[in-house]
Write a structure and sequence with these properties.
Blueprint (H helix, E strand, L loop, with lengths): L5 H15 L5 H11 L30
Helix pairs in contact: 1-2
Length: 66
């Protein structure tokens, strides 16, 4: 796999581990593929899964907490 940068490599590896333990869905993992990989194998657009109230996905807001 080719990553867009070293930080995207770390983010993607963490996402894969979260997927393995059931922390995120396969759809979320595909979104991480799109975000982090240079040439993701997933060609299909994935709709955001963060709006599902039953989801256990982690919502990324871009805000840091102190």
């Amino acid at each position: 796999m080719k990553y867009k940068s070293d930080i995207f490599k770390v983010i993607h590896q963490d996402a894969v581990e979260m997927y393995k333990i059931g922390g995120i869905t396969e759809a979320s993992l595909r979104e991480y593929d799109e975000m982090c990989l240079r040439n993701p194998k997933t060609k299909k657009q994935v709709s955001p899964v963060y709006t599902n109230s039953d989801s256990t996905d982690i919502k990324i807001t871009g805000h840091a907490t102190a």
